[in-house]
What we know:
Elements: E1 4-5, E2 11-12, E3 15-19, H1 26-35, E4 42-46, H2 52-55, H3 60-77, E5 81-87, H4 102-123, E6 128-139, E7 142-150
Parallel strand pairs: 3-4, 3-5, 5-6
Antiparallel strand pairs: 1-2, 6-7
Amino acid sequence: MGLGVDILGMHKxxxxxxxxxxxxxxxxxHEFLTGEGIMxxxxxxxxxxxxxxxxxxQNDAERxxxxxxxxxxxxxxxxxxxxxxxxTDCGAYGGRAAFExxxxxHRKHAEDMEASKKMILERWPELKVKKILIKLxxxxxxxxxxxxxxx
Length: 151
Protein backbone atom coordinates (compact mmCIF):
# COMPACT_ATOMS: atom_id res chain seq x y z
CA MET A 1 0.00 0.00 0.00
CA GLY A 2 1.18 3.47 -0.76
CA LEU A 3 0.83 5.48 2.42
CA GLY A 4 3.71 7.90 2.28
CA VAL A 5 5.21 10.63 4.38
CA ASP A 6 7.07 13.54 2.82
CA ILE A 7 10.17 15.12 4.36
CA LEU A 8 8.03 17.55 6.39
CA GLY A 9 6.14 14.67 7.99
CA MET A 10 2.97 15.29 5.99
CA HIS A 11 0.91 12.17 5.40
CA LYS A 12 0.18 11.78 1.69
CA UNK A 13 -2.54 9.89 -0.12
CA UNK A 14 -3.62 9.64 -3.73
CA UNK A 15 -7.29 10.57 -3.61
CA UNK A 16 -10.39 11.57 -1.75
CA UNK A 17 -13.33 9.22 -2.36
CA UNK A 18 -16.80 10.67 -1.86
CA UNK A 19 -19.64 8.16 -1.74
CA UNK A 20 -23.05 7.60 -0.21
CA UNK A 21 -23.23 6.28 3.34
CA UNK A 22 -25.38 3.30 2.28
CA UNK A 23 -23.80 0.30 4.00
CA UNK A 24 -24.79 -2.11 1.22
CA UNK A 25 -22.07 -0.80 -1.06
CA UNK A 26 -19.04 -0.61 1.24
CA UNK A 27 -17.59 -4.07 0.48
CA UNK A 28 -17.99 -3.58 -3.28
CA UNK A 29 -16.59 -0.04 -3.12
CA HIS A 30 -13.54 -1.45 -1.35
CA GLU A 31 -13.19 -4.13 -4.05
CA PHE A 32 -13.45 -1.45 -6.74
CA LEU A 33 -10.84 0.76 -5.05
CA THR A 34 -8.52 -2.22 -4.64
CA GLY A 35 -8.80 -2.81 -8.39
CA GLU A 36 -8.00 0.87 -8.96
CA GLY A 37 -4.85 0.46 -6.86
CA ILE A 38 -5.80 3.00 -4.20
CA MET A 39 -7.25 0.90 -1.37
CA UNK A 40 -5.55 2.10 1.81
CA UNK A 41 -4.33 5.23 0.03
CA UNK A 42 -7.37 7.55 0.07
CA UNK A 43 -9.39 9.81 2.32
CA UNK A 44 -12.96 8.55 2.72
CA UNK A 45 -16.00 10.87 2.84
CA UNK A 46 -19.30 9.07 3.24
CA UNK A 47 -22.53 11.11 3.32
CA UNK A 48 -26.13 10.41 2.36
CA UNK A 49 -26.71 11.30 -1.29
CA UNK A 50 -23.03 11.96 -2.06
CA UNK A 51 -23.07 14.51 -4.93
CA UNK A 52 -26.61 15.62 -4.14
CA UNK A 53 -25.03 17.68 -1.36
CA UNK A 54 -23.16 19.79 -3.93
CA UNK A 55 -26.01 20.49 -6.34
CA UNK A 56 -29.18 20.50 -4.24
CA UNK A 57 -28.26 20.80 -0.58
CA GLN A 58 -30.91 21.52 2.00
CA ASN A 59 -28.79 24.54 2.93
CA ASP A 60 -25.50 26.14 1.88
CA ALA A 61 -23.71 24.63 4.89
CA GLU A 62 -24.05 21.15 3.34
CA ARG A 63 -22.28 22.24 0.14
CA UNK A 64 -19.60 24.04 2.13
CA UNK A 65 -19.05 20.95 4.26
CA UNK A 66 -18.38 18.91 1.13
CA UNK A 67 -15.97 21.47 -0.31
CA UNK A 68 -14.22 21.83 3.05
CA UNK A 69 -13.54 18.07 3.16
CA UNK A 70 -11.82 18.29 -0.23
CA UNK A 71 -9.80 21.33 0.87
CA UNK A 72 -8.66 19.61 4.06
CA UNK A 73 -7.68 16.46 2.18
CA UNK A 74 -5.84 18.49 -0.45
CA UNK A 75 -4.02 20.62 2.10
CA UNK A 76 -3.16 17.94 4.66
CA UNK A 77 -2.73 14.88 2.47
CA UNK A 78 -1.79 16.31 -0.92
CA UNK A 79 -4.47 14.47 -2.91
CA UNK A 80 -4.33 14.69 -6.67
CA UNK A 81 -7.71 13.17 -7.40
CA UNK A 82 -11.32 13.21 -6.22
CA UNK A 83 -13.46 10.18 -6.98
CA UNK A 84 -17.20 10.91 -6.91
CA UNK A 85 -19.48 7.90 -6.44
CA UNK A 86 -23.27 8.11 -6.61
CA UNK A 87 -25.53 5.07 -6.76
CA THR A 88 -28.89 4.25 -8.25
CA ASP A 89 -31.90 3.63 -6.02
CA CYS A 90 -30.46 6.15 -3.53
CA GLY A 91 -32.83 7.03 -0.70
CA ALA A 92 -31.52 10.60 -0.51
CA TYR A 93 -32.79 11.05 -4.09
CA GLY A 94 -36.12 9.43 -3.26
CA GLY A 95 -35.09 5.98 -4.48
CA ARG A 96 -35.76 4.52 -7.89
CA ALA A 97 -39.50 5.35 -7.53
CA ALA A 98 -38.67 9.08 -7.78
CA PHE A 99 -37.76 8.67 -11.47
CA GLU A 100 -39.96 7.96 -14.47
CA UNK A 101 -37.42 5.54 -15.90
CA UNK A 102 -33.99 3.99 -15.37
CA UNK A 103 -32.68 6.34 -18.06
CA UNK A 104 -34.04 9.39 -16.20
CA UNK A 105 -32.42 8.19 -12.98
CA HIS A 106 -29.10 7.61 -14.76
CA ARG A 107 -29.29 11.04 -16.40
CA LYS A 108 -29.97 12.78 -13.05
CA HIS A 109 -26.99 11.14 -11.37
CA ALA A 110 -24.76 11.91 -14.38
CA GLU A 111 -25.87 15.57 -14.34
CA ASP A 112 -25.34 15.94 -10.60
CA MET A 113 -21.92 14.33 -10.76
CA GLU A 114 -20.88 16.57 -13.66
CA ALA A 115 -22.09 19.69 -11.82
CA SER A 116 -20.16 18.54 -8.72
CA LYS A 117 -17.05 18.01 -10.81
CA LYS A 118 -17.33 21.54 -12.21
CA MET A 119 -17.66 23.02 -8.69
CA ILE A 120 -14.56 21.15 -7.56
CA LEU A 121 -12.50 22.14 -10.60
CA GLU A 122 -13.50 25.80 -10.27
CA ARG A 123 -11.75 25.86 -6.88
CA TRP A 124 -8.97 23.36 -7.55
CA PRO A 125 -8.25 23.07 -11.28
CA GLU A 126 -5.15 21.00 -10.56
CA LEU A 127 -7.22 18.08 -9.27
CA LYS A 128 -8.38 15.18 -11.40
CA VAL A 129 -12.05 14.29 -10.85
CA LYS A 130 -13.41 10.85 -11.69
CA LYS A 131 -17.16 10.09 -11.73
CA ILE A 132 -18.37 6.58 -10.93
CA LEU A 133 -22.03 5.55 -10.95
CA ILE A 134 -22.75 2.45 -8.90
CA LYS A 135 -25.73 0.72 -10.49
CA LEU A 136 -28.07 -1.77 -8.87
CA UNK A 137 -29.08 -4.06 -11.71
CA UNK A 138 -31.84 -6.66 -11.41
CA UNK A 139 -30.63 -10.10 -12.47
CA UNK A 140 -33.57 -12.46 -12.00
CA UNK A 141 -34.20 -12.60 -8.26
CA UNK A 142 -30.84 -11.08 -7.39
CA UNK A 143 -29.48 -7.58 -7.58
CA UNK A 144 -26.05 -7.12 -9.06
CA UNK A 145 -23.83 -4.11 -8.43
CA UNK A 146 -22.01 -2.62 -11.41
CA UNK A 147 -19.59 0.29 -11.56
CA UNK A 148 -19.78 2.65 -14.53
CA UNK A 149 -17.20 5.36 -15.07
CA UNK A 150 -18.88 8.41 -16.55
CA UNK A 151 -17.08 10.71 -18.95
